[in-house]
Amino acid sequence: MPFTILAGSYTNDIYTLLFDPSAGSLILKSLLKVGHHPSWVEAHPGDHSLVFAGLEQADGKILAIKYDEEGNGKVVAEASSGGKDPCHQVVVGDELAIANYSSGSLAILPISRKAPYILSPAPVGSTTLTGSGPNKERQEGSHAHEAYWNKVYNEILVPDLGGDRVYRFTKNGSWKIANYIGFEAGGGPRHVVVHDGYLYTLLELQSKISKHRYPSPSASASPSHITTLPTMSSPPPQPNSMLAAELLIPSTSSAFPTPYLYVSNRNDPSPLGDIISIFSISGDSLQLIAEVRSGLNHLRGMVFGGENDKYLVAGGVNGGGAKVFERIDGGRGLKVVAETKLDAPTGFLWV
C-alpha cells in the first residue's frame, strides 16, 4: 500500500511525496508554495487532512492547510505566530502550541477542525522565556525549540536551547510554567521525548543525549538525572560544527517488541553523510548499539510511519534529498528502501 508523506522545507514549498514499499519508490507528487521556510508540518490528530505549518520568518506566521485525497493542499487560514521564527507546533485539544525560536516564547492559538480552522488572528496567550548560556553565538537569549505534548502528564514541554532548560507547562485556566529542568551549561536542549517514565533530552550544541527519571509535575519528587552520553561513538573535540537534531522512540508492537531510541546528527564531514544513532533504553540504561550512515547532509528532521512504524523517512537540507529506511533486526538497524531528490527538506509528516 502506498503512503503519502508531507515534507516541510527551507524553501517556500511544502512537498507531497508518495512512498510505495512494494515498488521501492519515493516520488515527488506535488508541491504547495506557501511562503518562507515552512520547516515544520503538524497534522490535526482528529483529521490528518488538516495540517498546520509555521513560516520561520521575523513576523512569524501559522498556516492551516487542507489536503484532498490526492495529496493536493490549499491554504485555508493563517494567523500570526505571536513571535519570531516559529520552528515547531503541536495540537493540544482545540489549541495549537507554538514554539517561537528567535523570540523565545510559547504561544497558544485557538483552532478548530472545521472552518474557519484558526479562530483568532493572533495567539490568545504567550509566555516569554528568560535565560542565556555560554555559547555566545547561539545562547545570547532564550530560544524555544519545541512544543512537545506529553499526554501522560497533560503537560507541554518546551526545550530552551538558549537557556539550557526544559520547561514544564501545565494548564489551570491558561498554560503556565509549573517548573523546569536544568541542563549542563552550553548543552542547548533542542527536542525531548517521554517514554515509560523517563525523559530523554537531545542537547544540540554538544551533541549529547540526557536521560532522567520523570515523575508527574504534581509529584513531590523531582526529575532525577541518570546519565548523559554523546550521540555518536567518536565525537570530535568541542567546539565543532556537528549538531544533534532529532530523537525518536517509535511505538512497540509484536513486530518490534523492544523500544529503541533513534538520534539524527548533522554536519558530519564524512563523504558517507550524517549518522543516525540507535540506543537501547531498557530500564535506567542508555547504550549506543548502532550507527547508520545516512548519505544525507545536514540531517534535521526524521519521522517513523507505516504499519508498526516500520519505516523512517529522513532528509538532508544540504544534500542527499529524502530517504525512507526500513527497520531491520528488530529495530537495531536501518536499511534504505527508497529515495528521491528534494531541495532542503526539514520535517516530515505521514498522512
Automatic annotation (TrEMBL):
Which regions are flagged for Low complexity bias? 215-224
Q: What InterPro entries does its record include?
A: Cycloisomerase_2 (IPR050282), Lactonase_7-beta_prop (IPR019405), WD40/YVTN_repeat-like_dom_sf (IPR015943)
What is the superkingdom listed in this entry's lineage? Eukaryota
Annotated region described as Disordered, given as residue ranges? 214-237
- Membership in a protein family: Belongs to the cycloisomerase 2 family.
For this entry, the protein name equals Isomerase YbhE
Organism in which the protein naturally occurs: Marasmiellus scandens
